[in-house]
Write a structure and sequence with these properties.
With 156 residues, the chain is mainly beta. It contains 1 helix and 9 strands. About 15% of the residues have low confidence.
Length: 156
């Protein structure tokens, strides 16, 4: 049996516990910003504060197979977001609080992995809607999922 230094023993324990796992990995990049199409005050769909939003849209990459995915979300012909989403341990939902007119709307989301999503939804005259788009990928296939509801979302 060989003697180990106290430092080597501590490092071995930290590695075994997973504390140092990923230390050599690059840190996740910054969250994508809203696209310029929705940042002007006169846009039909525009970024606002959470309290003013008619739709609080969350977008996330949930695929460990694709550590970074380029996602584009378009609502009523306006690009809401076009950026890279890091998986970041699968607990990284980026919020886009949107103001828009009540009524029917069309959403298209696409990823650089080939996944595509088309959804129609309605914004009521009163109240807010909460929605999430998640990118999933495994074994070379990818999909985008959609959930919209009246109550705030709870993320695990």
């Amino acid at each position: 049996m060989t003697a180990r230094s106290p430092l080597a023993l501590v490092l071995a324990l930290l590695l075994a516990a997973g504390v140092l796992a990923g230390c050599g990995d690059s840190a996740p990049g910054p969250d994508p910003d809203p696209h310029g199409d929705v940042t002007s005050s006169d846009a039909a769909v525009r970024i606002v504060g959470d309290d003013e939003a008619d739709l609080l849209l969350y977008v996330s990459n949930q695929s460990f197979d694709e550590e970074q995915v380029d996602l584009t979300v378009v609502i009523d012909g306006l690009t809401v977001v076009d950026g890279e989403f890091d998986v970041a341990g699968q607990h990284n939902w980026v919020a886009f609080p949107l103001a828009m007119e009540p009524g029917d709307h069309e959403l298209t989301a696409t990823s650089d992995t080939g996944a595509e999503l088309r959804e129609s939804f309605r914004i009521p005259r009163q109240g807010k809607r909460y929605a999430v788009i998640d990118h999933w990928g495994e074994d070379g296939s990818a999909e985008l999922t959609w959930l919209i509801q009246r109550e705030p979302l709870a993320f695990a």
